[in-house]
Amino acid sequence: MLHALVASDGGSTVSELARRLAAWETGKTPEAVTSKERKRTYTALRQTHLPKLAEYDVVDYDVNRGTVALTEVGEDLQPYLWPRRQLGEEYARLAIVAVLSSAVVTVLSWLGVPPFGMLEGYLLTAVVTLAFGIVTLGAYLRSRPSVLHGSAHRSDTQYGGLDDAASDD
Prior knowledge:
The chain has 169 residues and is mainly alpha-helical.
């Protein structure tokens, strides 16, 4: 629900919020959501979720007007909505590539194979360090919060099952 409020610039009507959430839950577009699906989500929001979030000052929920908006507390939660994906396997593969590349460069240097034979001592150390630095920089650039936020937001707000939507009504 907080994802939907952020996507709505921090505020929405309960009805529109229910339609958007029902669409995400069913994999349909908001226009293809049936009244039964929207009603089920609307009831859960109105009776349970919104009062509880309002109690903790995450949202400002106006029952009479049927509106809901993120509060400052809710805005502060935004960085936690799309957590960093698990990059352990990717980092492991990158580390293996860096280690193997460095080992190959080192062996070729020791064997005197041109142009690697010119790499000795500090120069060899600099090349190996540069390889690890490039791999680390690449991993950092791919895992920084703004990149992850964007890709997670897209995956959380895209609608699937568009072909099935027409047959459900």
